[in-house]
TrEMBL record:
Originating species: Nonomuraea gerenzanensis
Protein name in the entry: Transcription activator, effector binding
Domain of life: Bacteria
InterPro entries noted in UniProt: AraC_E-bd, GyrI-like, Reg_factor_effector_dom_sf
Pfam short name (any one): GyrI-like
Cross-referenced SMART domains: AraC_E_bind
Domain AraC effector-binding: residue ranges: 1-161
Lineage, uppermost ranks: Bacteria, Bacillati, Actinomycetota, Actinomycetes, Streptosporangiales
SUPFAM superfamilies: Probable bacterial effector-binding domain (SSF55136)
Gene3D superfamilies documented for this protein: Regulatory factor, effector binding domain
Amino acid sequence: MPQIIELPERPYVGVRRTITMTTFGLVADRIGEIIGWLAERGTYPAGAPFLRYESIDLAADRLVVQAGIPVPAPVEGEGDRFAAVLPAGRYATVTHHGHPDQLFGAIEALLQWGKEQGLTWDMAERDGAEHWGCRLELFQTDPRVEPDLHKWDTELQFRLA
């Protein structure tokens, strides 16, 4: 069942790519690289790795997505890796158990629940695309511990306006 939680600002290091629904690997596959890059600098994740959706235009099959790793304190970026902060605020959240390819149903259910609750998302529609202030998919399962994607837990966190 979805719930609303209050979250503080959270620093992270990320990369950004413009992708399609079939090229998620271009951004998602960078998570391990970012973790290694942080470890080389003596910094370790302060939470679950995530995908942050900035812009979604399904009709044009164009998404602007970040892969990010929370860090305990701000870290200076390098190359295409940048430092940023997830904004504080109220988030609607729910956890999906199962293959990440099945997230669409959980996302639709969360959006519908928000509509039924009269919630307003931190999102604006422009030029046929959704532009999100902070829409996250956090990967709670370590693939080194549980390689079966059907047993993964993915937490959705969508910021409220």
